[in-house]
Write a structure and sequence with these properties.
Layout lengths: L9 E5 L5 E3 L4 E14 L10 E15 L2 H8 L6 E7 L2 E16 L5 E9 L7 E2 L1
Antiparallel strand pairs: 1-2, 1-5, 3-4, 4-7, 5-6, 6-7, 6-8
Amino acid sequence: MAKINGIPTAFTIDDSSGTPVTFSSEVGSCNVNTSRAQQDVTGLDADGTERINLRGDYTVEMNGFWDPDVVIPVFGDLSNARAFSAAFPGATASGEVVIGSFNVSRNADGSISWTASASQSDGASGANWA
């Protein structure tokens, strides 16, 4: 596959009642960070470090534009796990997350923006990429 841009990207996340909300026009940027814990298993006889992979994890960071009719139903109540999906051109990341933070900022230019972070909650080995 050739190199491509990220336009369009479709972003969906459940509101606190479990209803999927297409959030693409309210999200200005998003980051899906897939990681795996590692254990140092270097013996006394080795000069270099030996590691093995352990549990998988992922986080989702979102930055967006203020539309309270859409944003508040999703982030106004941080309880409950919810499904998310970020459909980038050529690949989609999805999974179950819990919202860890939601921050609203009134910026110096008068605009209102928000940031939110979510973390894996379903015990899978990382975000599902398809």
